[in-house]
Amino acid sequence: MFDLIVIGAGSGGVRLARMSAQRGARVAVVESRYLGGTCVNVGCVPKKLFVYGAHVRDELEDAAGYGWKVPGEQVAFDWPTLVANKNAEIERLNGIYRRMLESAGVTIIEGSARLTDAQTVMVGDRRYQARHITVATGSWPVVPDIPGKECILTSNEMFYLPQLPRQAVVWGGGYIAVEFAGILAGLGVETTLIYRGELFLRGFDDDVRRFTAEELAKKGIHLRFGVTLDSVQAEGGHYNLALSDGSRLTTGLVMAATGRRALTEGLGLEALGVELEASGHIRVDEHFQTKVPNITALGDVIGTPQLTPVALAQAMVLSQRLFGDGGGEMDYQHIPTAVFCQPNIGTVGLTEAEAKAAGHQVVIYRSEFKPMKYTLSGRQERCLMKLVVDKTTDQVLGAHMVGPDAGEILQGLAVAIKAGATKAEFDSTIGIHPTSAEEFVTMREPVADH
Ligand code: NDP
């Protein structure tokens, strides 16, 4: 009898298993694919490695302005090398995850789990029992049901493509679509992004959305907004696409990044009384408790933001609740996040529209400029920074950036904003010179006040 069986060895599951074992619990984790889950294998980590790879192109282009001679005809990119090196790094991380679990005393069970009662997990024909069971099975890409769907790749397959096409179409307008459009374009693929709405990145600040669209277009990405994909047909070595506005496209690859659904099939949850939301996520209360007393769930499989650091934080809270002193609550406010397109987006707190909708009277500070690095290289890329401030309390409600290293820069600002910093405190903070980040503490003139 285990104290805890965790189903799924992704970011949240591994953290929960490890922390609980370190608290003295007897823990097993069941995993049917790979240790580390989406983040390590087909998400955050390999994506960021590809982003670095794509960014080398910009560095090479910028080199000449700094006196470096990079003979164009000798510069070549080899996709299989990038994939092989990425695979080696992922294998190294898989090994680290295994060692971390083993050294914490966690039993790793390989296979697919099925719950037969609230304390019993079957893996193949083996039966395991536990006082607590946590479902941390994550999410999986969804591709809308259109004719030719079987020709469409998702991010899962993109990480293992044998070769890069000359042209690609990315379908969707969220994190993954924007990031992969940037990777493909950076690696020299002629890329088109198709999004059904008027402007992609719904939910981000409107200035950020507009600015990012301008910058991605400058990078040569064809942005097709207000259309969607109706069908795909394979013909020879390429794909013919029919779009909702009646137009057609021919391309070498179609990738859908149209959202991710919770992975719950085959677990036998509903038969035990675990309820699902209409979206397919497992319904839990604020303590990750499902409708069945000893079954909990966390991470992408519940309806909270699908972000690794959120799953990690949830795991810490749940482990403490199950095997620690019981305290701890998740705080879903002020979750900073980045989209690793080029340039990056970094954001924390409320957008201008959200602040107004929440009843704040806001003062907006905004700055757009050419990063210093691009003065000599002549690159036309620009940077956007924006602060949303409450007029009455002077509290900074949100910070938003599009520009190099936005993800790195916003992490520090997230601490300040979570701590309730005011605009006056931003202003009295000494800048680090010369950086782009110092602009966040030197924006003095509001651009809007309403
Ligand atoms: P998102 O939910 O972010 O975006 C899905 C996109 O697909 C939206 O633009 C949506 O449009 C569109 N879409 C959904 N259904 C359809 C449809 N039937 N037809 C056409 N378009 C459709 O999902 P992603 O797959 O990009 O990413 C999943 C999650 O993973 C993210 O939300 C994020 O939490 C996480 N993630 C985080 C990253 C990071 O931190 N850097 C990187 C990658 C992923 P609409 O807006 O109109 O609904």
Explained architecture:
The chain is built from 13 helices and 22 strands. The chain is of the alpha/beta class and 450 residues long. It has three domains: 201 residues, FAD/NAD(P)-binding domain; 109 residues, FAD/NAD(P)-binding domain (3-Layer(bba) Sandwich); 105 residues, 2-Layer Sandwich (Enolase-like, domain 1). Strands 1, 2, 3, 4, 5, 6 and 16 form a seven-stranded mixed beta sheet that branches. A six-stranded antiparallel beta sheet has the order 17-18-21-20-19-22, with helices on both faces. Helix 3 runs antiparallel to helix 4. The longest helix is centred in the N-terminal third of the chain and has 25 residues. It is globular and about 65 Å long. The mean pLDDT is 97. NADPH dihydro-nicotinamide-adenine-dinucleotide phosphate binds next to helix 6 and strand 17. The site of NADPH dihydro-nicotinamide-adenine-dinucleotide phosphate has 24 residues, from helix 6 and strand 17.
Question: Key features?
Answer:
450 residues, alpha/beta, FAD/NAD(P)-binding domain, six-stranded antiparallel sheet, 13 helices, 31% helix
Outline:
Helix content is about 30%, strand content about 25%. With about 450 residues, the chain is α/β, with parallel strands linked by helices.
Q: Beta fraction of the residues?
A: 15-25%
The backbone outline, from C-alpha atoms, is globular
Q: Can you tell me the residue ranges where pLDDT is under 50 for at least 5 consecutive residues? A: none
User: What's the multimeric state?
Assistant: single chain
Within CATH, the superfamily of the largest domain carries the name FAD/NAD(P)-binding domain
